[in-house]
Fold this sequence. Notes:
Layout: H1 8-14, H2 23-32, E1 34-38, E2 43-45, E3 53-59, E4 61-67, E5 73-80, E6 84-85, H3 87-92, E7 99-102, E8 106-112, H4 113-122, H5 124-150, H6 153-162, E9 176-177, H7 181-188, H8 192-204, E10 208-211, E11 214-217, H9 220-225
Antiparallel strand pairs: 1-8, 2-7, 3-6, 3-8, 4-5, 4-7, 9-11, 10-11
Helix pairs in contact: 6-7, 6-8, 7-8
Amino acid sequence: MDNQAQTLTQHLRATIWARCLSASQMQRVEADTFEQFVPKGGFVCRKGEPMESWTGIIDGLVKMNNFSAAGKNVTFTGVPAGGWFGEGSLLKDDHRKYDVIALRDTRVAQMPRATFEWLLETSLPFTRFLLMQLNERLGQFIGLVETDRLLNVDTRVARCLASMFNSHLYPGVDKVVQISQEEIGYLSGASRQRANQALQLLEKEGLVQIDYGGIRVLDVEGLRLFET
């Protein structure tokens, strides 16, 4: 189903973790979770804010972002439709360590902290899901550190795009990633111009197609294995 056409309830029922909940648990989740609209460039949440909810992307794309004291911009990762984030800070009862900014108009699902904690207490399968979520997230960030330190820009751009197709973290992601070449540069630690060169190389290799307003991924496994 097209994410744009999904209602909040339809989106919740389509998640991986919803499959492990009882009917009564799902009923409370649907009653408590609410939707927000965030326009392109708007903040889904800000660094330093208290953690009040677990957040999912119904439709759109966001980036986890931070700025140094000197104003240098760092983008950690992008979260497409189907992804949920913030569980780590909720479990630690910590404030947000980063900004989350919409890269395009985005519909967001917010599950209140109380509901999230209630699921942890009443659903062992949900707890198992979160263990897998945290493990996948750890693997993703270890991979990002390795990629940043050991690989060249062309390979970093390929791995950056491939990382957005994790079936556990981002189930059902569309093959067209609506993200600018500038943001690809942020995610891969390169300038916009250098990211553009890398994308042109990947296009020549038959791995992606550069479309207006986005990148069409033709071969996810090829991007994971690509190296120059």
